[in-house]
Design goal:
The protein has about 350 residues and is of the alpha/beta class. It has one domain: TIM Barrel, CATH 3.20.20.30. It has helices spanning about 25-40, 60-70, 85-100, 120-125, 135-150, 190-200, 215-235, 255-260, 290-295, 300-305, 320-335, and strands spanning about 5-10, 45, 75-80, 105-110, 185, 200-205, 210, 245, 250, 270-275, 275-280, 285, 305-310. Strand 2, helix 2 (about 60-70) and strand 3 (about 75-80) form a beta-alpha-beta unit. Pfam families: Bac_luciferase. This is LLM class flavin-dependent oxidoreductase.
Length: about 350
């Protein structure tokens, strides 16, 4: 059995070829797609976060709206760039959204990827301390966020408050019990995955990672997942961790699918997502369902993960993306033993 969700980058463009021509379109259609995915029996609706871009950015209003419109589906991010975040304010937003959703948030966080502007987090008022990097800053923000989510009081109360306080030191409110266990880290390396395991976070691995062996992406990710689980066991956490993998997978069911994705089958590519860091970019899968099943059986990382996130072309509209999800749920997932 495997949880299956979708991952949307929330692109929008004023182009006549796009079904999402404004930020409003992207947001409202994201809600509609989550509702449709829940009705189709999918398990998760996840959203990418990018700043200074014509994409989804501030995630919590969207997650709360989806939480109010659905009842079962997991709602998450992949990922929130912690370089941009005030961890205490984020804890308030996350707690509120999780309470609205009835405890269904699954928040992916990370250092983030290269953004649209240079050091964009500086415009948000953040800078790493002297002698540290933006990576250090992101991890520090994450550590504070995780600590606050535990719900322990830490702030000294005013002896003459406007409203009566509960006894003892105060915590960030609203607090949502259990959210701390539903935080994931988007890891680009094995070492970062091991750090996430030690910190008690679940693991998200995307359609790319830093190249550490020259092997295909799915093999490198499978190695990463095994390293994560070993580190988790060593840390002695009581609960079982979760692991998600993102993939671009399209079942070619009709002429429309073939026109959009019939030529998309590809191999992994190696390149530079950052100036000095070589990365491996995963292939897309696009084929008739029976062929697709045989291809996916060879993907070692999918086999290792408990959650599969299907990247969706959100600019093609809600109806088409619901069709993409339904095709996988109906014609691929049962044959793979995921349902």
């Amino acid at each position: 059995m495997k949880k299956i969700g979708f991952l949307s980058f929330g692109h929008w463009s004023p182009s006549s070829q796009s079904q999402t021509r404004s930020a409003s379109d992207a947001l409202l259609q994201s809600i509609d797609l989550a509702v449709a995915a829940e009705e189709l029996g999918a398990d998760g609706a996840y959203f990418r976060v990018h700043h200074f871009a014509r994409q989804l950015a501030s995630p919590f209003p969207l997650l709360a709206a989806i939480g109010a419109k659905t009842s079962r589906i997991e709602i998450g991010t992949a990922v929130i760039d912690m370089r941009y975040e005030n961890p205490l304010y984020m804890a308030e937003d996350a707690g509120a959204a999780d309470l609205i959703a009835g405890g269904r948030l699954q928040l992916g966080i990370s250092r983030g990827s290269p953004e649209q502007v240079i050091d964009g987090w500086r415009y948000f008022g953040y800078a790493p301390p002297e002698g540290q990097t933006d990576v250090d800053m992101a991890r520090r923000h994450a550590e504070v966020f995780l600590e606050v989510l535990r719900g322990q009081g830490f702030a000294k109360p005013n002896p003459r408050p406007m409203f009566p306080n509960p006894p003892g030191q105060l915590r960030v409110e609203p607090h949502s019990q259990g959210l701390r266990d539903r935080i994931w880290w988007g890891a680009a390396t094995n070492a970062t995955a091991e750090w996430a395991a030690a910190a008690g976070m679940n693991l998200q691995s995307s359609t790319l990672k830093f190249d550490e062996s020259g092997k295909p992406l799915h093999i490198q990710q499978a190695d990463q997942i095994r390293a994560f689980r070993t580190a988790w066991k060593t840390a002695g956490h009581e609960r079982e961790p979760r692991v998600s993998i993102s993939r671009s997978i399209f079942a070619l069911m009709d002429d429309r699918d073939r026109a959009y994705f019939g030529g998309d089958e590809s191999e992994d590519h190696f390149g530079y997502i950052e100036a000095d860091t070589r990365a491996v970019f995963g292939r897309s899968y696009a084929a008739e369902p029976d062929v697709l099943v045989e291809q996916l059986k060879k993907d070692e990382a999918i086999a290792e993960a408990d959650t599969l996130l299907l990247t969706v072309p959100n600019q093609l509209g809600v109806d088409y993306n619901a069709h993409v999800i339904e095709a996988i749920m109906t014609h691929v997932a049962p044959a793979m033993g995921w349902r």
